[in-house]
């Protein structure tokens, strides 16, 4: 196939330090397996449909599952995004990711949370209806993700922000939409010397002014790029940790692996 995806040697050198050590029998070439994993996630394929150029589909799938459980791909994303330098400003937002029937088929109680919820459709945003997950992200001024969180679809933006608060990098300002207009969040940002550029909710008695020119820069946030990857746009993974690993792989390849 002419459109196969292969990581370069320079790209592999950036991520290899975070790979687990091989024990016992030497494993299949890392570049081949990681490139095959990227291809499957990018194209939205079933694992069994991975091109033969990448080796046995079972080998690709098993490596992805095993390393997902070890948090390897999350560590790679966190390490490379931290090397991007101190951001001048931050942007926070969240987006819904529709759950395919294969992901929702095991929507029941168990030892591991699925991070799949049910949200009601509304006339203005009918896409939110049904089973879905929600990706919360804090990005730098260029729209590149720094901190990400996966939750059930019904979780509010403010609750997601609360869970990511301790991981916020230092910056001069944070841009967010009306969903983040809460006094406790503004106070938490002020304690960190971060100026809040957040429009006031319409029901706020005394609206708080914000920099409208600065606020327009929120269009740079990265969700559109991530959703070009078909296994991100639609969630096929049943387990939350495998889906989050796929998101981390996509974010690393799109934004950080070539830095």
Per-chain topology:
Blueprint: H1 9-15, H2 30-43, H3 57-70, H4 72-82, E1 89-99, H5 101-104, E2 117-119, E3 130-140, E4 145-152, H6 157-164, E5 173-175, H7 183-191, E6 195-197, H8 212-215, H9 223-226, H10 230-233, E7 234-235, H11 240-256
Parallel strand pairs: 1-5, 1-7, 5-6
Antiparallel strand pairs: 1-3, 2-3, 3-4
Helix pairs in contact: 2-3, 3-11, 4-11
What do you see in this structure?
This protein starts with 8 loop residues before the first helix and ends with a helix. α7 (183-191) links the parallel β5 (173-175) and β6 (195-197). 37% of the residues lie in helices and 16% in strands. The relative contact order is 0.17. The protein has 259 residues and is an alpha/beta fold. The chain contains eleven helices and seven strands.
Short description:
The chain has about 260 residues and is α/β, with parallel strands linked by helices. Helices cover about 35% and strands about 15% of the residues.
